[in-house]
Each structure stands twice: as structure tokens, then as C-alpha cells.
Design goal:
2 domains; about 15% strand; elongated
């Protein structure tokens, strides 16, 4: 965009042709006005798009409140970070934002691509034995609108009771309710 203004000035004033003079100052003014309008419009869009972040930026809201409101798995990450051992390896089924966990979380889709474990281990016993052989000690999974991520979760957790769960949480970005569960293998 800045090149447009510069090019307009040079072309209108005849600088590229080696001619000097006042041939078309109205085009230069018009180009400058259009540039400023576009810049202002894009700035307004940027301000509107990021309006949710202002309370935390200006200390009207704590980081904890902000993350609890905008990151649906943050309470689970907080619980895991405070209560699970440092060396815990966690299989995340349906967890797509594991970056707030300070433990090793392997997403099930990645593990399935590496190993194909869902199709290899078709019984509850073989699935749990495989996960334990890979040093997984916990499983976190997310239900969306009351539906489990897939059929393999029943083979993974068996009949175990959840050691921590919370929800339903209304996802602000998408119209869905999410419930998170943590199981020990």
C-alpha cells in the first residue's frame, strides 16, 4: 500500500519521466485519502477482532480468569499441573490444545498415525496393555455435546471411574458443550 502512494506521487508529478511540475496534485491527494481510509478500516477491524483480550491486557481481569473463560480445557490443565506427578505421560483423546499442560500430553490422533493402535488393539485388555507398555499413566478425554470422541475410548478406559471431571463448559468460540474426564490407567 505505501508503494501505491509513492508511485502515484511519482507518476502524477512526472518524476519517472524526468518532468517536474504540478500536473496532478489531486490524484496524489486522492491516493493519500484512500490509503488512510483503508488503513483506518483495517485498524478498526483489528481492534474489533481483539476486543476480548483488552480486559487482561489492561489488568481488568486476571490471567487465570481470562484462561478459564476462553480456554475450555484450562481447568483440566490446572488440575493436572497441580496434582499429577511430573513424569506423568497422558493420552489426550479429543484434546486439541494441550499447550497449557505442563505434563507430557500425546494427542490420540498423533499416536494413531504413528502406531495405528486403534485398529491393532481391539480388546480392552490389549489396548490398556499397549498404553501401559508405552508408559502412559493417564487418559484425558473430552465429550462434545454428550458424545464420546469415538468407540476406542471404551477400550481405553474400560470400567474405571474418572479421578477428575468438570463440565459441561460452553465453548465461547463454537456452539457446543464440552465435558472433560481424567482417568488413571
Amino acid at each position: 500500500m505505501p508503494e501505491l502512494v509513492g508511485t502515484s506521487y511519482r507518476n502524477c508529478w512526472g518524476q519517472d519521466a524526468g518532468i517536474g511540475g504540478d500536473e496532478c496534485p489531486e490524484y496524489a491527494l486522492l491516493t493519500g485519502i484512500i490509503f488512510l481510509l483503508v488503513l483506518g478500516f483495517n485498524g478498526a477491524i483489528c481492534l474489533y477482532h481483539n476486543r476480548h483480550h483488552y480486559p487482561v491486557v489492561f489488568n481488568l481481569e486476571t490471567e487465570e480468569e481470562y484462561l478459564s473463560k476462553w480456554v475450555t480445557n484450562y481447568p483440566m490443565a490446572k488440575y493436572v499441573n497441580q496434582n499429577l506427578p511430573i513424569g506423568a505421560k497422558i493420552l489426550g483423546v479429543g484434546i486439541y490444545k494441550p499447550y497449557y499442560f505442563k505434563r507430557w500430553v500425546v494427542r490420540d490422533g498423533v499416536l494413531d498415525i504413528w502406531e495405528g493402535y486403534r485398529s491393532k488393539y481391539t480388546t480392552e485388555k490389549s489396548m490398556q496393555a499397549y498404553l501401559k507398555s508405552q508408559d502412559f499413566s493417564y487418559v484425558i478425554y473430552k465429550e462434545i455435546n454428550g458424545k464420546k470422541p469415538d468407540d476406542s475410548i471404551n477400550r481405553i478406559i474400560g470400567g474405571k471411574e474418572a479421578i477428575f471431571s468438570y463440565g459441561p463448559v460452553q465453548n465461547i468460540e463454537k456452539p457446543q458443550k464440552e465435558i472433560f474426564f481424567l482417568y488413571k490407567l
